[in-house]
Amino acid sequence: LAGTAAGTAFRTLLLDPLKLKRIGLSGASADLPGPHPRGYAFAHDPVGGAPLPATQRSAAAAGTLKPVDRTMENPSFAWTAGAAYSNASDLADYFQAMVDGPLLSSATRAERISEMEAMGAPDPDGVHYGYGIARFGPYLMYSGAVPGYHALVAYDPSKKNTIVILTNLMWTPDGGAPVARIFADVNIALGVRTKS
Predict the structure, then answer these.
(1) What single-letter DSSP state applies at residue 124?
(2) pLDDT in tens, 119-167
(3) How many angstroms separate the Cα of 111 from the Cα of each of 86, 105, 115?
(4) Is the Cβ–Cβ distance between 54 and 116 less than 8 Å?
């Protein structure tokens, strides 16, 4: 792989064998293949999660403070983690192939799961993370964001179900992640118990 551009390596080794067409790396450009949604954020905080000041939260609730359009910002600052793009269907297929399919050997998949560590206080039902994947409740999952966009993909190996949530708002004015709120609502609707 030495000397091969990341986008080419991803396409050749991962995406083409799975016949995925609407997933890839945008490279050093802000251009995304169309059609695509516009991406928004309330603050210029690339890490996010911090609430806006009270006056700005009130203005956002009243509709007088609008999120900023971040669509044309170049996501390559986060290199392969942030410059990835996908539609929901290809993301679901890619993630399933990675956690329960042909992309990794069963030994590698088992090692990724066995090496996970608790995020925060040790709790067998809490979030565990390692090697670019998390475990939460029955799910193996990953979530990522760049200014204007946020994605979450979760796969339940026992039921072979995949949940994909894509939003075009990175953080809410109170510092919450829209994908987390939607994921919680989806789990309530599915009757899946997870810790909040």
Answers:
(1) T
(2) 887 777 788 998 889 999 999 999 988 888 899 999 999 999 999 999 9
(3) 27, 10, 6
(4) no
